[in-house]
Amino acid sequence: MASIMKCVHCQKALKKKTKDHVFPRSWYPKTTPATVQRWTVPSCEECNGKFGEMEKELFIRAAMCVGPVKAEAAGLSRKAVESLGVGVSGLSPAERRHRQVLKTRILKEIRPYKPGTECFPGFGPHPGFPEDKQFEIRIPEKLVRQVAEKIVRGCEYVLAGKRLVEDPYAVEVYFAHDDKIQDVLRVFNRFGPVQLGPGFRVSRAAAHDEPNNVMYKIDIWGTWTIYASIMDRTKLQ
Ligand SMILES: [Zn+2]
Q1: Which residue of 134, 145, 177, 232 has the smallest Cβ count within 10 Å?
Q2: Percent of the chain with pLDDT over 90
Q3: β-pair type (194-196, 200-206)
Q4: How far is the CA of 11 from the centre of ligand 1 (A)?
């Protein structure tokens, strides 16, 4: 019997065989070998479009904040700036206008960095440059949570035999500084991470007694880490 393919994100039955990249294509640093598999999962066109927009909004902001000399993030800050039309030639007039509008919008969000500002774990002023010459941009927490959950759902599909995270199970995303959660990090020691080139490292740990309860640690660009759990929400108190 043929099973119906469902969207990993909204669980609607797919009418067409459409797919979504677990890690967006444009997020892979240019140091990624061609042999690295770019994971894809079944996704409806609606989710694909919705998450594609979110990923782009997050990418522009996050990639601009990534240390420009890291091999794990090679080429990304440049790509972010180019998506604003800076340093690219040969664009069609329509595309040039589109990027100009985006640039105006993003530039309005950029402020001089105030030393001591709370940053997302992994981000912060770039070492080796004077702090008062640096800039900051706000990354909406909701945007990070939504994109992080999308990535976790994709990883679970790939790593756990095409599992869909369905009710009563739910994905919860956490923000944490590594040094504050040493106990939690120990659970990952027993499980080797899956490395997708220098850009991404995925660690997954399932509970002994309840293998559907899962923890994720996903390292992105050697810079920031998504911590997430998949748990039965009716048993969470
Ligand atoms: Zn969907």
Answers
A1: 177
A2: 70
A3: antiparallel
A4: 6
Ligand 1: centre distance to CA 197 (Å):
28
Query: Per the confidence metrics, is the pTM higher than 0.85?
Result: yes
Residue 144 maps to a domain? no
Distance 149 CA to ligand 1 centre (A): 13
Distance 100 CA to ligand 1 centre (A): 31
**In sequence order, what are the residues at sequence separation of 6 or more whose Cβ sits closer than 8 angstroms to the Cβ of residue 186?**
none
118 & 24 share domain: yes
Q: How confident is the model at residue 185 (pLDDT cuts 50, 70, 90)?
A: confident
Question: Does 8 map to a domain?
Answer: no
- For 29, counting Cβ atoms within 10 Å of its Cβ (0-12 exposed, 13-18 middle, 19+ buried), the class is buried
Taking a 5 Å cut-off on Cβ, the residues next to ion ligand 1 are 7, 9-10, 44, 47
pLDDT digits (tens, 9 = 90+) for 143-178: 999 999 999 999 999 999 999 999 999 999 998 777
